[in-house]
Each structure stands twice: as C-alpha cells, then as structure tokens.
Design goal:
This protein is of the alpha/beta class. It contains six helices and five strands; from the N terminus they run ααβαβααβαββ.
Length: 149
C-alpha cells in the first residue's frame, strides 16, 4: 500500500514544483478598450518607474503591477527592465523618501484586467490568454525570447 501512495504523491509533487514561468509564454500590456495609444517597451518602463506620469492628453497614468511573487511580475520585470525584482525594491525604497509611491499592486490577472477595463487612465499586464474585448492590447512581451519586441 505504501508503494501506491508514493506513486500517487510523486506526480503530484512534480506538478507542484513545475516551473510556472514555462507555462506563461506571452504577457499582454493592456489599457482600457477606449484608449487609442501606442507604446514601446521603453515607454512602458518609464510609466512603471513613474518617470512618465501623464498620457498625451494630460491625464495621470495609473500603472498596475501584479503582486511581487507572481510569475507575471517576474517576467515583466525581466523583459521590460532587464533586471531582477530586487532592482525595483531598491529603486522604490529610494523614491519613497521623495514621496513617490510604486504602482498599485493587484493579486491576479483577472483583478488587473477588471481594474484596467474600468479605469480609463490605467495600464497593466496580464497573461495574453486572458485578454478579452474589455481591454486593448498595446503590445505583447514574449517570455520565450530574450528581449521584448
């Protein structure tokens, strides 16, 4: 009987320890469906570092991050900033004393999508497979290549 339990547990352990980055291949940078804007990866970096704070018409940009431990955040940080997550921690610690706070953080792709769909000045990122007509894709980051398009 112990052999059967071990046989059942082993595949479960393999599933639990699989690298989640491999499952997520494309990350969509999204804005509200009504926002007609094009951005490049460098502009997105400026927005998420809060170095660019306004859309072209003058509205305040609201960048939305995934939580710090999410696969999406890990991929976004690597492809947009070409850095590890600790780079951003140091960056925001320095800016905090100047009164500049990091982007809003939400816990799931669905939460990011709902927030961006309802907030006309928001920009966020989610798994491309979850995109629907409630948001507009500005561009897509491909996790299978070394750099962003």
């Amino acid at each position: 009987m112990a052999g059967r339990q071990l046989t059942f547990v082993f595949p479960l352990l393999m599933l639990m320890t699989a690298n989640p980055v491999e499952a997520l291949e494309r990350l969509a940078i999204i804005v509200t469906a009504d926002r007609a804007t094009d951005l490049c990866v460098d502009e997105v970096a400026q927005i998420f570092l809060k170095k660019r704070r306004f859309w072209h018409a003058g509205e305040s940009i609201v960048p939305v991050n995934r939580n710090a431990t999410s696969t999406e955040r890990e991929i976004f940080t690597k492809l947009v900033f070409h850095q590890e997550a600790r780079f951003l921690q140091t960056y925001w610690n320095r800016l905090y004393y100047d009164g500049v706070l990091p982007p809003v953080t939400l816990a799931s792709d669905e939460a990011v999508k709902r927030f961006v769909a309802r907030e006309p000045n928001a920009i966020g990122y989610i798994d491309e497979a979850l995109v629907d007509n409630s948001v507009r894709v500005v561009f897509v980051l491909d996790a299978t290549v070394a750099s962003a398009p």
